[in-house]
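User: Before I run my own analysis I want an independent prediction to cross-check against. Here's the chain; please return only the structure tokens and, at the end, one sentence I can use as a sanity check.
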Amino acid sequence: MQRIKAAVIQMCSTEDVERNLARAAELARAARADGAQLLAFPENVSFLRFQSTETYAEPLDGRTATYFAHLAREIHAAILVGSFPQESDDPQRVFNTSLLLDPDGVVVARYEKIHLFDIDIPGQVTIKESDHIRPGTDAVVAGLLGTRFGLSICYDMRFPELYRKLQDQDAEVLMVPAAFTLMTGKDHWEVLLRARAIENQCYVIAPGQWGPHGGTRHSYGHSMIIDPWGHVIARASDGEGFATAWLEPEKVAQIRRNLPCRSHRRF
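Assistant: Structure tokens:
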């Protein structure tokens, strides 16, 4: 693992793709100017559905992927494109796809969200991702900047078996871009992320959407970076912005050496 200064970038995306991309670039340049080498954006960074019923989809080499590839090259930084709606062979449903780009804008990994968030709480919130999202099937780990990154998206964090698969593929950093709801975020966001860090002895990078997006959509925010011991080492405040922290290779190695729970597994 390599020493990396990482940034979680917190946004309030809407259905206005042009505005979202412009704001992402503004925040990326600010985080890069602060020394960040890896910039992590939240789920639905370029398009966050709150009202539209039309299927919005882009090809893998479409507007969002091309925009962030150019941005990575411009500022020479690695970028996690938290997610965007990627077209599939189902005309009614898209993949919710995350991309990991190197500083030359090359896609080093693509992950399609596996676990879909379907809830209906009368009088509070109704979200049914399966109506317009097709689930992925593969756990993804990729090497970048001398480090092994495991990819996931938002609701995945409630399924620890996915992260065990990522650890089995030698992940050192777990990426969890999200648009976590305000209601569940207040009680579950931090505790779940810290658990994933502790049980897998990995850094967790969790950039989140924040605030009211329109309609009933309201995201919790509190984007954070967590070390392999479960300590929150960076946290974004309310509003759009970013927070940074150093990922230290010796921290992962030391914790895994001193508490070798991976070798103690029985199942």
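Sanity check: The chain has five helices and 16 strands.
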